[in-house]
Amino acid sequence: MSSPASQADGLKRFAYDASAALREVGTLNFDQTPIPRRLWRSVFVALLALLGAVQYALFFGTGGHAQATTLTQSVLTQRAVNQQLVARNAELTAEVFDLRNGEDAIEERARGELGLIRADETFYQVVDLDPVESQRP
Question: Is the CB of residue 122 less than 8 Å from the CB of residue 128?
């Protein structure tokens, strides 16, 4: 059997060795343990491949640069079409307003589209017999 004093000395030695081991684990000194060049190259190649995959997805993947450019162009085209339709709707709205509120618009349409004349008017139609000769000076 060992004496209590020797047990205490052994315990102190164990505690010192354990704390020294923990200090060594907690601090990494890269100068003492060099990393092989092959490992550095492998890490570099892996990071480069990862960067390439991210760039490919950015440019060619769903929601990438190519698709964003296509969508931007289609939005611009649709805006131009919408402007034309807004102008056409404004014209139609004005025409509907004129037809509802004024007799002049109805009369103008009847004369232009249907060829109607009033009872007190005389209609003369001038027909050009030879359109080629009339254009010569």
Answer: no
**Residue 99 Cα distances to 54, 89, 126, angstroms:** 62, 15, 30
Q: Cα dist. 128→16, 134, 135 in Å?
A: 123, 8, 11
Distance CA 65, CA 72 (A): 10
Look at residue 84 and tell me if it is in a domain: yes
* Total tally of structural domains belonging to the chain: 1
User: Per the confidence metrics, is the pTM higher than 0.85?
Assistant: no
Using one digit for the tens of pLDDT, what is the confidence trace for 26-60? 555 555 667 788 888 999 999 999 999 988 888 88
Cβ neighbours around 61 below 10 Å, total:
14
Distance CA 118, CA 110 (A): 11
65 inside domain: yes
**Is 61 within 8 Å of 68 (Cβ atoms)?**
no
